[in-house]
Write a structure and sequence with these properties.
The chain is of the alpha/beta class and 293 residues long. It has helices spanning 17-33, 56-60, 69-81, 159-167, 183-196, 252-261; strands spanning 3-10, 38-40, 84-91, 98-104, 110-115, 136-141, 144-150, 172-176, 199-203, 217-219, 235-238, 244-251. The strands form two sheets. A six-stranded mixed beta sheet has the order 5-4-3-2-1-12.
Length: 293
Amino acid sequence: MNLLNIALLQIAPTDSLEGNLEKGTAACRRAKELGADIALFPEMWSNGYRIYDRPVEEWKAEAISAESEFVRAFGRLAGELDMAVGVTLLEAWEGGPRNTLVLFDRFGERKLTYAKVHTCDFDVERNLTPGEDFYVTDLDTARGPVRVGAMICYDREFPESARLLMLKGAELILTPNACPMELNRLSQLRARAFENMLAVATCSYPDSVPDCNGGSSVFDGVAYLPEAEGSRDTCLLQAGGEEGVCVAGLDLDMLRAYRGREVHGNAYRRPKKYALLTDTRIDEPFIRANRRE
């Protein structure tokens, strides 16, 4: 058994960037005390995802560079703690800020910068600049190299997000979040893990944050074991609503053995049949006719 310990920092933000740096640093230190190999923040930690019920220009002014001291501080902390850190931010970007994750490895090296592709354009997130692609990196951990990708909150709603990451080799998807994690959203995460034979780790805000309820989770995607009858529960962790640092151990050996023998993921795909999925001429809003562009 080769356990990769994933810490979900289910913590409430303060009212300042400096406060979030201090509180986030303390949470990372607590994660390390609990044996974590990776620590993940909830969505847009730099300003606590405080973009609702405020003037757009006010929260846009809170955007910071991915090269800012706030972000760099978590890179140094990752190196100090010998622990990967996935920190999230409202990133300053030409044309409008982005909703971004920066992943540092345990040496403090920046390994991945991902901006949310599926921004919630039906609401205030229409003022954000969407990311351009999904990325996977080889993350050096104390448990050996792990192929890690990322998606953010609403990306979860689209099967293509996790599917692309799987096709790029992801074994683990880190998913910062800032919405209520009720039955159906949790079911989506469970499905993304199952259908792609990979792990999905989601970090949310606690129930003390408006429109959030905790529920951070890790699904390992291993639905069947040779020695067991029927299927198994792929949920390694589902947090309650309270604030805190939660840790789940992902058995990398079990996951990799499963991916080598089972029938999901890319094992029996027929991509030549899927051309309609990428046909940009098909743009009819069949379900929601009044979709906002």
